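ATPases of ABC transporters with duplicated ATPase domains-containing protein structure dump, as promised
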Amino acid sequence: MNKIFVILTALILSGCATKLTQLNVPTQLEYNGKHYVLTGSQDFETIARYVYIAKPDTLENWQSEIEILFDRNQSERSIKERIALRERIYRNTGVKDFHFDAIPKKFDQSK
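structure tokens r here:
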């Protein structure tokens, strides 16, 4: 009986500590005439990351990928600073080909 109580307490506490993301992202995207499917997501509290791979590619063998980053901007950087940081991270991790779409200035709420 005591073991069950300990296990239930641990489950309840871990459930309370788990942070759920409040973002609704599509499971499929159409971009440049290609169909992409959501294959993974990670929420790092400051940034949420969503990865889409073109059909019929697989995780082991893919040719085209879209990665969407939702930056909650807790450090209050400008869009240009956040893009420069992401470019530096990609270069340092060996990503050879990446592109950031321009974001209109009206969406830069940080500065």
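The chain is about 25% helix and 25% strand.
lmk if u need the other ones
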